[in-house]
Amino acid sequence: MTGSAELLPVLIVGATLLSAAAIFPLRDDQVRLRAAVCLAGPAATLALVGALIAGVRSGARYEARFPFLPGDDLLLQADALSVLFVALSSALWLVTTVYALGYMRHGPNRSRFFGFFALCVSATMGVALAGNMITFLVFYETLTLATYPLVVHKGDAATLRAGRTYLIYTLSGGAMVFLGTMLLHALQGAGGFEVGGLLAQAETRPSDAALRLLFAILIAGVGVKAALAPLHGWLPLAMVAPAPVSALLHAVAVVKAGAFGVVRVVYDVFGVTLADALGVLPWLGAAAAITIVWGSVLALGQDDLKRRLAYSTVSQVSYIALGASLAHPAAAVGAILHLIHQGIMKITLFFCAGAFAEVEGVKTVSRMAGLGRRMPWTMAAFTVAALGMIGVPPTAGFVTKWYLAIGALEADGAWVVAVLLISSGLNAAYFLPIVGAAWFRPPPDDMVRPEPPPRLSVALMAVSPVVTALLVMAAALLATSIFSPLGWAQALALREFGFER
User: Fold this and answer.
1) Which DSSP state fits 360?
2) Is 454 exposed, middle or buried (0-12, 13-18, 19+ CB in 10 A)?
3) Residues 103-142: pLDDT tens digits?
């Protein structure tokens, strides 16, 4: 192993950590210096991730070990799945930082905010690059602690109550991951994530009952952050956080870390063949299907825009678990793609929701009439992302649902197609009225606009969702290009199911 092979994963986690360390000491009035540091961190990280992608594409192996527990090292490694997640995280961190610099233009504790923002991304990078369950656990719990100050940033009573609920849920989920990690160690000993499954490749296999228990514990642990029903209650309450935090929670960090954990457990701890033989995948699929429909039904009843988007996330993220449960290569492609596609669609929607609130004072669905005329670029971005969530071509959401549907039909899971159709119908029911009112209805007569933010702030909050909305379109229109995650997802699925590519 070369020094660079050991160093690159460490540098990616370290660059985000150093960015946080540089931001925390800055005074709130050091606006330009803080902005420069905030942008330098994600820019440097994105360059490192680019080098990692090039290396993995050429067949290089990246791995760094650090002594931690007897028989268990902290292991950072890069595989095709982790590369997809770190690419998403680094790219969206940069875009979100640009947005946040416009959004967080006033108020106290801005250096604290951006410091924990960077620390949160550092933990997410660690989750992505974790090479075994103990490393995953360390960064998974670090992510919980790093995001709590962001959730409670406003500091009022309602925010603190929501923060307590967030901690109760996420720390409980972390405790389940801890218990599952200990049980895995007791059953299997030390070992890293393996293509085809660590447990599936073990020389001696524990009893089926023990393995089913382990699967249930681990899925429950990561299912809290993935917002699988009935473990989703924290997510709508966490919408008291500032819009950049909401965007980060839903698209990059907490929720996506949970969904990523589901994929790791199914594919790299158990292996899809073993999980299928144990009969646990139908239970995961049922939980995901219930969450998909229930989350959409709950979204329909929300007038607060961010809460509607939160319940939409509860529904949409479960597509990943649903695809992983089908034990079919095409469905696996859909699941892995949705890790990326849901991120760019949902971050666009939250960027727009924050801009609507800051620029026009609009926070509820019932007050969105006429917004398309007053904020055309932002509303256009919202429209593209909403159509993507519904699954209208040519958007990223259509590509995801296409692969999930193909996989379901080929796996004799026609019921999954029914779930996808019901979900798309519900998505249309809670997104299209917003789009229609914004573009085609006049604003309310009693509309009172707040004092407009500075032009630079408005520009930063407008550019970010437009960029991510273009990515929503590009993910479909350029799906076969070398820049698309589709090729990576197909290669991952083929390897998981025992085919070479």
Assistant:
1) I
2) exposed
3) 888 778 889 999 999 999 999 999 999 999 999 999 999 9
72-89, pLDDT tens digit by residue?
A: 889 999 988 999 999 999
Q: Under a CB-based contact definition with an 8 Å cutoff, are residues 205 and 199 in contact?
A: yes
Number of other residues whose CB lies within 10 A of the CB of residue 209:
9
Q: How far is CA 228 from the centre of its chain?
A: 14
Q: Take residue 270 and report the two structure tokens written for it.
A: 């158990």
Q: CA distances (Å), 446 to each of 48, 367, 437, 442, in order?
A: 51, 10, 16, 11
Q: What is the token pair recorded at 151?
A: 């959730």
Contact 339, 489 (CB under 8 A): no
Angstrom distance (rounded) from CA 154 to CA 281: 41
On whether the CB atoms of residues 128 and 82 are closer than 8 A, the answer is yes
CB contact at 8 A, 45 and 72: no
Please report whether residue 215 resides in a domain.
yes
pLDDT bin (cut points 50, 70, 90) of residue 248 is confident
Helices and strands, number each (H, E), in the chain: 20, 2
Which bin fits 309, alpha (ψ -120 to 50), beta or left (φ > 0)? Answer: alpha
pLDDT (tens digit, 9 = 90+) per residue, 412-469? 989 999 999 999 999 999 999 999 999 999 988 777 777 778 888 899 999 999 999 9
Assess if residue 93 is contained within a domain. yes
Distance separating alpha carbons of residues 452 and 385, to the nearest angstrom: 25
Could you list the residue range(s) of the whole structural domain that residue 181 is in? 3-496
Copy the structure tokens of residue 239: 């919408």
Say if CB 147 and CB 241 are below 8 A apart: no
Does 501 reside within a domain?
Answer: no
Distance CA 133, CA 216 (A): 15
Structural domain count, the chain: 1
| CA gap 340, 485 in Å, rounded | 8
pLDDT reported for residue 409:
94
Annotate 206-229 with DSSP letters as a single string.
--HHHHHHHHHHHHHHHHHHTT-T
- Give the separation between CA 115 and CA 401, rounded to whole angstroms: 37
Q: What is the mean pLDDT of residues 369-382?
A: 94
CB atoms within 10 A of CB 412: 10
pLDDT band of 384, cuts 50, 70, 90:
very high
pTM of the model: 0.94
- What do you get for the CA distance between the two ends of the chain, in Å? 25
In this structure, is residue 331 part of a structural domain?
A: yes
Instruction: Kindly state the average pLDDT of the residues 209-235.
Output: 94
Instruction: Kindly report the average pLDDT of the chain as a whole number.
Output: 91
